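Progress narrative, work stream C.
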Amino acid sequence: MNTARPLDGITSLKVKLGLLVAVSIVVAVVVERVADAGQVPWWISVPVTVVAALAVTQWLARGMTSPLREMTSAAGRMAGGDYGQRVTASSSDEVGELARAFNAMAADLASADTQRRQLVATVSHELRTPLTAQRALLENLVDGVVTPDDRALRGALQQSERLSTLVADLLDLSRIDAGVTSLNLTQGRVADLLSDAVAEARVGARSARVRYEVAPADLTVKADRPRLAQLVANLLDNAVRHSPADGEVVVTARLVDDSTWCLDVRDEGPGIPPDRLERVFDRFGSGDDSGGGTGLGLAIARWVCDLHGGAISAIAPQPGQTGALLRAQLPVTPPTDRPTHLTQERTMSTLTPDRPTGQPGDATPPAQTTPGQVVHVPANPYAPKGPGGPGPLGNLWPERPLPPQTVPVLAAIAIGAWAALTWPERNVGLAVALTMLATGGLMWWVARFRAHPWTLLCAVVAGVLASVTLLRDAGGVIALSVFVAVIVAASGVSRARTLLAVPLSVIAWPASALRGLPLLARTISATGRASTLWPVLRTLGFSLIALALFGGLFASGDAVFGAWAQALVPDLRWDTIIARTFILALVAGVALTGTYLALNPPNIADAALPATPRARHAWEWAVPVGVVVALFAGFLIAQATAMFGGVEHLRATTGLTYAEYVHQGFGQLTVATFLTVVVVALAMRVAPLASSRDRLLLRVLLGALCLLTLAVVASALYRMSLYQEAYGYTVLRVFVDGFELWLGLVIVMLLVAGVRLRGAWVPRAVLGSAAAFVLVFVGLNPDAFVASHNIDRFEAGRELDTAYLARLSADATPVIVERLPADVASCILDSPGGYTVGGREDDDDLLAWNLGRARAADAVATLGAPTQVPDPTASWHRGELCAALLPPAAVPAG
């Protein structure tokens, strides 16, 4: 897929990174300022701002590192023999240069592999022909069919000479590939060299005529005579093979100047096409094997010229000329500092056509490609690149071969649009519940493992938890339910089975915003190519324009129609447009990331911490666990002393009252209980289990630790109950009671697992019990529970914290109305923060319906007008009552 890469023109990677950081910061600041101007809550604006900055970063960074990932994948495929790999090399920075060098290397390797295959095929053919003839001759000699005369032996000798020539060429080829050889430079006459070479060529030329000319006749040069003879022999062999039967081959040697001499070989054959003049000296470069030969002779001739510091070329024929002209230009005296080996670059240049000078590393691309174009296309266009997929996640989260997901993406955007239209200026209720249920339904519909029993169970539980927005008005209860619903849903689609897999699955949800970008890009590209997309968008746009134009006219022209329109059309003031845009981005993003997590969950179902070597000796782990057990035992002894020693003993020992003592350190006890879980898990991981004695010791110590922890849990619950009896109930205190009970249940699970030394079932059981705890907490209706118990204390003669009751949600309103006198209830509910402030019971429409607020509205309706004392001389009236019941800050103004 061709995509724009906005930073490709910048030639420095450092400048790109600096620009990337600067632009992302500017985008984040602008988005945050817009959110602040629209009074968007932080829990909406912060995620949208982060995503916007990441999106701009991803867009700008496109192409910066993708060539590196492509090179990693291509290198793996090339290791398997696929040399057709190319990477995108459109950027101008260091990564782009590396990509172009990689493409050049891939082109050289592809050419070398092709020529290797050609060499094997050619050599096999060339060896088979003389061997077959020689074998047939020898068989005839053995069988007596042919007499061993001079003619038969001469034929066998010719075949052996042909084999020797081929082997010599292969040896020269090995020297070329090795890039190292030696030169033995001696002074000699060119005429003598050509005379010998022409004489040998005439013997094998059959009917072709061969002659030579030297000017001046006594031309003497310094060279390696065997190598120079090899050069002339190969040129003559090529010319003779391509000459007609009655043709003539002319070899001319002449002095060009004091330092250079020239060797021309001309034949009368069909000649060399102009488009092949630059390739005839490459291996198999002539492209025409009709004349026989291995296709290596001219490549060897070029190698000999390079060794002597010269050059060889094919001269284009002049008008009216026929045949081919090959010209070698050589120094009369090779330079003494000329290396006697070929560099690797020059060796490789014999494999591929010449590159223009001054452009090192710039490979000539294949004929059917253009620079920067990716040639290789996998059989499946959506297949991951490489064994572990691109990116740093590797095998932990490989990219599955998923086709474009147009329908899920459109569904996620529709969910976000629904939230943007229905959430602003409404209380949490039906609209929010439908949004979360739709998101969960979309995730389950596309889930990879949606038929798995664990995934089905988690889907049901998450749906029930998401429905709490329909039942309760308390913000803390709703937030807790949604949080646990997210954990359950993420664990369900990823099939989490271990203690580490559960948090990793939750982290994978926001991480899907980055991991799912390739699939989202493919989906957008495929959708953009769809033939019906733009007609649909045009139709929708024209419909919206017509709706706004004529709807506005009719709404302003008829009051009844205007009232209907006002009820149906959302408020589109500038600040609400900003808020709706942020909500659209947030909800659609959550739905999209959740959808990708369900489509392609990471491989974390059985994730575990790195393997830890078990202790060699029992005391290595038994001593630390024993210390923890001793500390727990000492703490419980101190608790017992405080409980049974009496108030005077406690005051004399600590200086604290009993109420202060039971309140002190409750949070520390909760943390200590949680850390016990960690200690048990680590002990089971590092303790040696080879012997029955070690197993027994592990069971005893962990069992003692779990039992002592349960005693600490019981102590904490008892202390909290005493504190609540003394100072009253709050939702947080009730929640902590429940949380401590849940931790006790977890300890019991660990105790059972420790006795059996098998705990694979514990992580899912812990998650299920957490969801059950939240559901029980929701069913308890904590606000109503706290209000009821505080009123119980009030009726028993204790003080009533009316200011706290006024801050409770609508869930507590029915209890307040039912249990307290009408005047007191009216004062509490009409206070700032109370349920009826702002008329919340009158603002809820169908989309904001909530059971807690509906019951509160019914309760307030039965309250009626507050009792008024008719006697003007009475000592109090309603305002004085409210002032007496509530702190001054809680009394309504006026």
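Work stream C, second folded protein:
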Amino acid sequence: MKYIAFFFSLTFSLLVAVGLSINLASLPPLASIFDPFKGFWQNAYSEDHNPAESLFLEGLSEPVEVIFDEQLVPHIFAGSEKDLYMTQGYVTAAHRLWQMEFQVLAAEGRLSEIVGEMALPRDREMRRKGLRFGARNKLKHLQEEDPETLSMMQAYADGVNAYIRQLSIGQLPIEYKLLDYRPEPWSPYKSLIFLMNMAEILSGDQDFTYTNTRNLFGDSWMEHLFPETPEGIVPVISRESWGFEPEEVIMPEVSYPDSGFFEKVFPGKEPGYGSNNWAVAGEKTESGYPILANDPHLALNLPSLWYAIQLSTPQNTVKGASLPGALGVISGFNENIAWGITNADRDVRDWYKITFKDDSRSEYLYNGQWIKSTFQLDTIKVKGQNDFIDTVVYTHYGPVVYDKNFMLEGKPLNFALKWTAHAPSNEQRTFLALNRAGNYQEYLEAISHFAAPAQNFAFASLDGDIAMTVQGKFPLKWSGQGKYLMDGSQSAFEWQGYIPVEHHAKEVNPGKGFVSSANQHPVSPNYPYYVFSDQYEYYRNRRINQQLSEMQGITIADMMKLQLDNYDLHAAENLPYMLDNLDSIAQAGAAGKWIRILEDWDYFAEANEPAPALFQSWWRHLQQKLFGSWQDNGLPIAYPSKYTLSLLLKNEPTGIWFDDLLTTEKETARHWINKGFEDMVVEIDTYMDSNDSLTWAEYKSTHIDHLIPNLKPFGRKALVGGGKNIVNASSADWGPGWRMVVALGPEIEAFGIYPGGQSGNPGSKFYDNLIDEWESGAYISIDLRNRSDLDRVLFKTIFNPD
């Protein structure tokens, strides 16, 4: 049983909480944990053990049937949408309650309540970034503009709360017992906080590090090392003509603020998060009908971020992956359409330097006048200590996140955040409408409500249409706006409105027979609006496009194979050049064996191959040596993408950025290639001193941890191939958390898989039962099922009105 190893470990190491150690006083009462009637023994069960055949659910208008298949995937059959979402809330909470609440507490800045002072800096940052501010704005918008969606969200919350009310202490998820707290009632506000958290995870910027880099090295370096449109890109949407008259954007005369240098790296989006999606037209498939594929890449955790579900009313049936805490299906399909999402990686967060009149910070300079700021007192409860009171200043741009009281250590600097996610919007409506959409026009209407985080929505329909739309709320900016810290006292730095929805980049039924996205540049350079991000991807998307261009007679198996494609395009484009530039002395001796392995490599990063580990080590050390030579004065700066660096190595090998100014010699790209190789040899030789063999899977060491990282027995290791910038994307702790392939037609065929299980209970056999299949590249059927189609039923429950 999984708990035995964990509790022996607990006795000796006294762990708990969010990757940090805590003291003995913070531990829960151990006697209650080991209580045979209320403690962890009560969680050592699987959901198919003595399940309830019928339950009362207050608020239902008529009975709802829930049938659980052999993987514990619920198929909910309800007579109305309100009953449907109420039951979805109950069933999701029954399997994922602790995960739902923990993620919301983390996003709302309330982890200190349950784990103590260690979480206080993170709590303050989440609050200062305005996640609660944005959720409140969205809730007010729903109350005023869309009470229908709000009523569905309330029904979902009612279902969650009905589950919470019937929980005994013994039935509480194990994490509540370990952390010694109790669940709170759910609400639509909590669902909105959850959606804000997704915007935070998938939104990023490097305004401060870009500013440092520009101040240190000048505009020439910025143009060469960080080109906004590098050569050879393949955008999501490419057109010669866009067919609309763009909104006018005035290019002002501006000067950036004298910001000095920033000594801290302010947290941004986790690097590497991304996704793949594509849809192929019937003309390229064996069946003659479209096929859609989607595999989002996010943190790999247990419980899984995703929860598979089918939702049925007499009007329609939808199936796919939901997010515990949000209504409906997020990536999925119904009887008529399929859709999938990837992060569009647009720059929708900008930072402004605020000049206050005096230390009171009650007024700040704007266009030569002093205007009033507002204050919000945030009371943060801290377990075992007095409450912490944080004062957050708000400007018309947004909250002052970093100031003398937070991250800047008493310095008289104030940086305000303007972010599209703060504004009123209705992302939940997008997914409710997509779930019941039946054609291209209804898909467009559904996604028109989606603001943040910006997403690429792939679409396919039974009618034969395929489409891709880059959707979000995108500021109208002049060229270059938002790359660097801006002066909050000048209105010239304001956004000039938003790009009209009808001007968003999209294509339907292109002549090439497919649409695809993989977090690359959204548009071709002739798009009439300024588009920027420092997070674009340059390899997965080109590999996907190249493969789809060559394919004909495409089948479901072909789409699965492409999702699992381990071809390392970055290595294929760079390794031959790197090998050719090795000095003879580097090739001598024992290093020769590593060279021979690299020379024989076919560039597929399979799990049992040694060459991918050698190449990744070599590239990483090359970068570290080169970047370490730059005279950054110890300041956090930005570094070029591996795509840009690859072009510079081959096309400008004598560029000034390759010359180490601390030496008398003139270094070139060749010098750093050799230095990187030398360090790779040292690293791999040391690795082999304690390992029997070198394989990519062991070296990369992908692991699927519990949301509380210190709970190691509740996590799993996964021996998988692929890697960063590979279609089968994975790193040590993130990867394809949901793979889905949907073949439309008279009888829809659909398959999916994710690394986890339906249950959030580590004692359940459904907690991690899908990891082995995911690891091996297998899928499970996720076809739409009627009551009569569910021949392999685990159990079923009838929810009755009270």
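The radius of gyration is 27 Å. No further action is required on this item.
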